């Protein structure tokens, strides 16, 4: 058996690698997923991550006790949370911070993990602890100082320590699309200091709740909403709407999809390949099989001999897959470790995946081998010892067409071979198109991100800077903004957190009021169309409409979560495709008409002279009316940096996989061709055909199949990408489905080159054939 | 009649040796062979298995290179030729016929012949070549649909279709019964007679020698006899 394996080692390796790819994805994704799930669970448990979260404008402290008494609640804790603008040494633009108060008795929920230094001293109101990522970037070690505008007052703060929290494994600044550890800080401050800064003594504006073992989350959310309603409650929500948790969960869901989605393709191809190669090996060894039978070996003995070979290939594939799977899991866990902030990692080897993949891998190879072995058993020994009869070629309709178009005979040989062995051609087609498909799907991720970036940064948000105002103001504020240094153009906007209610469904979202003739911040759908909200009615993105189960023409109830806390009932005018969109839109005139108030703005979008950004930043740090600022160039940089690292890794892995399949399939097909037709091809050389002309017969057939497989692979890739969009889309966003020609072309090119390389490797063997011997040796 | 009067022979081999090395063992297939083949001549190479016949014909046909000695095709030295030149030599000047026909199974009789006519300089049509070997009625059949004798005649048609200068036949009747074998010999005989193609015919069947102009006998890698036939017979008169 080892001799057989040595004979076909290159082919066996190619098959084992394809099989290994499937197992690699399965093991890699599962090990990563279970590592993250276990780490997440342990982190949540040890640091008492809350189950339900709620906000209010200002609620008396005793609502926390009342919340703890709600049936199903095990524990409740209140805190004060607010935004602040920070002035960090060495940073021109202002940073934004979210200040979180620490209960005087020490936190009981969402326990911060002190990584360095200590928590602030209750007796020192200017002490703060910072989230580790922000502190690390700016080198704000314990003892460092920073300045912040807290509730309109400039304060000097002293850093006491660095902290991580299960609430902020993934941190998104409000209104941003990506984490921004440089410009967004989480700041923990003692309860007394926060209350003093915000005039909130004896009050809280956030409540976190831990459920009892049998607590009903929905009932608790409803009870909390009722409890906080008189105090400007902004709506309670479970972990599923908690940003950090929802993102992490989305990521875990994607890993699960990857583990379920990809491996079957590889396993199927590997099974076909084992069948093909073993079938060929058995054909070459017919005489030996006949001899063994004649000598009295039973069918089972012979079958077991070949089956062992298939199983050995399976075992090699499984082991290679495990190895690569762990390696990939390590790489992915490393990436996630950077992206998500876990204080520790509980590594899980994905034992379940190991067992499943071993069974699947070996069964795949075994099943592939079984079919080939079966045919060897049917041969009577006497027939098996004869050389196989020359294959007969029938004249079907396809053949008549070919004869009619008068091809060169070497080309005819290519077509006849495909027609004669359609099953084999189909395996090659299937394998190569799968490889094209995998590449299309993987390069599609770039398309999606580019599309997204283009839509968000080029089409929708053309402003350089967005100012968030501390309070809504009349639209005269836009004129004031024009006086800030470097500002070329200013546009007001109005945004308000709302709870959208339709029937029994509701969603927390935002309502955007659009002023007419906006040039900077526009509403753009996935097709790139600029949508101008009409005179009345709401525009909803598809995903929000689906979540609310609402159609155009129906009325949506919007409850504002901040003053003036208006409740509006507005008809839905239009539903637009918008993958990243979660917010409801309306014309400003219609909005203020419905609210019965004069036009207001609470955001101002600016276009700014690029060389005056520093002046603008400096001015804004001193403008109390501005609560925060978004620098869109910086947002774009963050977006690119975060995505490019993740994407390159993923796309690299998928490219490797796609190319490996192509090589595995084409190399095996070429080797089988060569071994079956070496006699025929050597005859051509004898007749005076050059190496290149003979090579054409071998290379031509496989490259023709590759060329045919490419459009099929495009179709397959389209379907895979569609599946990917479905699997990766979360409640938070939907990947735009748009595959560029570049992606199709790149996938085709990569596979074409991989196939060509594989065939050329085999062609070199053809060149080395000794004509005199090849003509004598008839197998 | 022997064509010794021809000034330049088609083939001239001088002291040709061929040594195969298998591991540490050296096998001498040819131990210094001298041979001339005149234009239009038909020579039968006779000898036991392993006597070096096939090795010699492979070297003459440019399929193999000798270990020593020189081989000329007309005034060109084959022993100095590159692989590319040898390929061109086979394509333009040599027709091969083998024991196992070496037809391409996926091509019909006509297409097997067309394979060669498509790359030859001055070929006859596949139809004409097949007609010469008496297979005009079997042109659209695949090899698997033909008898051994028919397949061998297709191989001959393929070999002569390019109007080669020399036809090299390695045991062309080896796999055939005597009746079919004679049909194949008749085809070769007619080609030699009508087109004047110099022909080398390898066989270990002594009965065949009488159809040739000359008989060369090899044993143990050497020429041990080289006699002109005083009187040739037609293939139909041969039997075995």
Largest β sheet strand count, sense and barrel closure of chain A = 9 strands, mixed
Query: Structural class, judged by helices and strands of chain A?
Result: alpha+beta
Assign the CATH topology of chain B.
Answer: Rossmann fold
- Poorly predicted regions of chain A are none
Biggest interface, chains and residues, is:
A-B, 29 and 36 residues
Unreliable residue stretches of chain B: 1-5
CATH C-level name of chain B: Alpha Beta
N-to-C span of chain B: 25 Å
Strand content of chain B: 25-35%
The whole-angstrom Rg of chain B is 17 Å
Number of helices of chain A: 23
Q: How many beta-strand elements of chain B?
A: 10
Strand content of chain A: 15-25%
- CATH 4th-level superfamily of chain B: P-loop containing nucleotide triphosphate hydrolases
State the helicity of chain A in percent bands.
Answer: 40-55%
Distance between the termini of chain A: 20 Å
Number of strands of chain A: 20
Radius of gyration of chain A, in Å, reads 33 Å
Share of residues in helices of chain B:
25-40%
CATH architecture assignment of chain B: 3-Layer(aba) Sandwich
Overall geometry of chain A comes to elongated
List the helices and strands and how they pair.
The complex is a heterodimer of chains A (779) and B (240).
Chain A: H1 2-7, H2 9-46, E1 52-60, H3 62-69, E2 73-79, E3 81-87, E4 95-102, E5 113-117, E6 127-131, H4 132-138, E7 145-150, E8 153-164, E9 184-190, H5 191-198, E10 203-211, H6 217-228, E11 237-238, H7 243-261, H8 263-284, H9 286-294, H10 299-339, H11 351-378, H12 381-385, H13 397-404, H14 409-420, H15 422-460, E12 465-474, H16 476-481, E13 487-502, E14 505-514, E15 538-541, H17 542-548, E16 555-560, E17 567-576, E18 584-587, H18 588-595, E19 600-608, H19 613-621, E20 626-631, H20 632-686, H21 691-728, H22 741-768, H23 771-776
Parallel strand pairs in A: 4-9, 6-8, 14-18, 15-17
Antiparallel strand pairs in A: 1-10, 1-11, 2-10, 3-4, 3-7, 5-8, 6-9, 7-8, 12-19, 12-20, 13-14, 13-16, 13-19, 16-17
Helix pairs in contact in A: 2-7, 2-8, 2-10, 2-11, 2-20, 8-11, 8-15, 8-20, 10-11, 10-20, 13-14, 14-21, 15-20, 15-21, 15-22, 20-21, 20-22, 21-22
Chain B: E1 11-22, E2 25-37, E3 42-47, H1 53-60, E4 68-73, E5 76-77, H2 83-93, E6 94-97, H3 109-117, H4 126-132, H5 148-160, E7 166-170, H6 178-195, E8 198-203, E9 214-219, E10 222-228
Parallel strand pairs in B: 3-8, 3-9, 6-7, 7-8
Antiparallel strand pairs in B: 1-2, 1-4, 4-5, 9-10
Helix pairs in contact in B: 3-4, 3-5, 4-5, 5-6
């Amino acid at each position: 058996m080892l001799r057989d394996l040595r004979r076909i080692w290159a082919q066996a390796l190619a098959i084992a690698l394809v099989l290994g790819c499937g197992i690699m994805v399965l093991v890699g994704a599962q090990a990563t997923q279970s590592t993250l799930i276990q780490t997440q669970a342990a982190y949540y448990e040890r640091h008492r991550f809350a189950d339900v979260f709620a906000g209010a404008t200002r609620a008396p402290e005793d609502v926390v006790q009342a919340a703890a008494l709600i049936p199903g609640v095990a524990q409740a804790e209140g805190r004060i949370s607010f935004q602040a603008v920070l002035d960090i040494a060495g940073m021109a633009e202002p940073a934004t911070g979210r200040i979180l108060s620490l209960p005087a008795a020490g936190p009981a929920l969402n326990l911060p993990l002190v990584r360095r230094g200590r928590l602030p001293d209750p007796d020192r109101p200017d002490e703060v602890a910072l989230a580790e990522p922000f502190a690390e970037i700016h080198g704000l070690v314990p003892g460092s100082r920073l300045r912040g505008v807290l509730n309109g007052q400039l304060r000097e703060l002293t850093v006491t320590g660095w902290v991580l929290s299960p609430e902020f494994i993934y941190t998104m600044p409000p209104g941003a699309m990506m984490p921004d550890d440089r410009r967004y800080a989480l700041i923990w401050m003692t309860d007394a200091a926060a209350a003093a800064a915000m005039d909130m003594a004896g009050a809280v504006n956030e409540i976190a709740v831990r459920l009892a073992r049998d607590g009903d989350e929905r009932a608790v959310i409803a009870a909390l909403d009722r409890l906080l309603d008189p105090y400007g409650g902004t709506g309670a929500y479970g972990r599923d709407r908690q940003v950090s948790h929802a993102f992490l969960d989305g990521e875990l869901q994607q890993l699960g999809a990857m583990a379920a989605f990809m491996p079957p393709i590889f396993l199927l191809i590997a099974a076909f390949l084992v069948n093909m190669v073993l079938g060929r090996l058995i054909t070459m060894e017919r005489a030996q099989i006949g001899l063994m039978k004649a000598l009295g070996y039973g069918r089972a003995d012979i079958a077991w001999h070949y089956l062992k070979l298939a199983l050995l290939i399976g075992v090699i594939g499984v082991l290679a897959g495990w190895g690569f799977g762990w390696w990939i899991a390590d790489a992915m866990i490393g990436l996630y470790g950077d992206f998500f902030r876990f204080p520790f990692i509980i590594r899980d080897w994905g034992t379940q995946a190991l067992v499943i993949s071993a069974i699947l891998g070996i069964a795949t190879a075994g099943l592939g081998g079984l079919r080939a072995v079966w045919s060897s058993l049917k041969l009577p020994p006497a027939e098996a010892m004869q050389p196989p009869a020359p294959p007969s070629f029938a004249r079907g309709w396809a053949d008549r067409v070919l004869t009619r178009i008068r091809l060169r005979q070497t080309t005819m040989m290519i077509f006849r071979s495909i027609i004669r062995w359609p099953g084999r051609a189909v395996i090659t087609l299937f394998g190569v198109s799968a490889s094209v498909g995998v590449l299309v799907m993987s390069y599609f991720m770039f398309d999606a991100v580019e599309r997204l970036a283009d839509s968000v940064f080029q089409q929708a948000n053309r402003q350089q800077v967005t100012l968030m105002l501390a309070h809504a103001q009349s639209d005269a504020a836009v004129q004031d903004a024009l006086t800030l240094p470097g500002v070329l153009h200013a546009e007001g906007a109005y945004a308000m957190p709302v709870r959208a209610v339709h029937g029994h469904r509701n969603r927390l979202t935002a309502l955007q009021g659009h002023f007419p003739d906006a040039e900077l911040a526009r509403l753009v759908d996935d097709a790139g169309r600029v949508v101008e909200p009409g005179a009345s009615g709401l525009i909803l993105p598809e995903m929000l409409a689906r979540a609310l189960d609402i159609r155009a023409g129906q009325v949506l109830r919007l409850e504002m979560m901040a003053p003036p806390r208006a409740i509006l009932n507005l008809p839905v005018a239009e539903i637009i495709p918008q993958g990243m969109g979660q917010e409801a839109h309306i014309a400003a005139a219609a909005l203020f008409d419905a609210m019965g108030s004069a036009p207001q703005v609470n955001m101002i979008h600016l276009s700014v002279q690029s060389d005056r950004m520093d002046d603008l930043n400096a001015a804004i740090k001193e403008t109390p009316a501005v609560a925060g600022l978004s620098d869109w160039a910086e947002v774009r940089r963050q977006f690119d940096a975060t995505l490019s690292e993740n994407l390159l890794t993923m796309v690299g892995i998928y490219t490797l996989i796609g190319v490996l399949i192509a090589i595995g399939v084409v190399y095996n097909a070429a080797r089988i061709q060569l071994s079956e037709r070496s006699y025929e091809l050597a005859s051509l050389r004898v007749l005076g055909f050059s190496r290149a002309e003979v090579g054409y017969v071998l290379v031509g057939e496989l490259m023709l199949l590759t060329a045919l497989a490419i459009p099929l692979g495009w179709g397959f890739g389209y379907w895979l990408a569609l599946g990917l969009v479905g699997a990766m889309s979360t409640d938070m966003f939907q990947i735009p489905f748009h595959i560029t020609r570049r992606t199709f072309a790149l996938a085709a090119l990569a596979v074409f080159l991989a196939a060509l390389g594989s065939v050329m490797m085999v062609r070199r063997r053809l060149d080395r054939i000794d004509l005199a011997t090849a003509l004598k040796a008839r197998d | 009649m022997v064509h010794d009067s021809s000034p330049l022979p088609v083939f001239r081999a001088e002291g040709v040796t061929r040594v195969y090395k298998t591991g540490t063992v050296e096998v001498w297939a040819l131990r210094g062979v001298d041979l001339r083949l005149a234009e239009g001549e038909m020579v039968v190479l006779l000898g036991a298995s392993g006597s070096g016949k096939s090795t010699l014909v492979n070297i003459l046909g440019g399929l193999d290179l000798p270990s020593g000695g020189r081989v000329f095709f007309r005034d060109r030295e084959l022993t100095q030729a590159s692989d590319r030149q040898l390929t061109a030599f086979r394509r333009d000047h040599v027709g091969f016929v083998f024991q196992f026909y070496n037809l391409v199974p996926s091509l019909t009789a006509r297409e097997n012949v067309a394979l060669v006519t498509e790359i030859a300089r001055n070929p006859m049509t596949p139809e004409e070549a097949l007609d010469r070997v008496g297979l005009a009625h079997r042109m659209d059949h695949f090899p698997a649909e033909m008898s051994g004798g028919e397949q061998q005649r297709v191989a001959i048609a393929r070999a002569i279709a390019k109007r080669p200068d020399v036809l090299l036949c390695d045991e062309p009747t080896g796999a055939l019964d005597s009746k079919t074998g004679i049909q194949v010999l008749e085809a070769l005989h007619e080609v030699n007679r009508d087109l004047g193609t110099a022909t080398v015919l390898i066989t270990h069947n002594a009965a065949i020698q009488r159809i040739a102009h000359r008989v060369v006998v090899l044993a143990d890698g050497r020429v041990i006899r080289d006699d002109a036939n005083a009187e040739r017979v037609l293939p139909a008169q041969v039997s075995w």
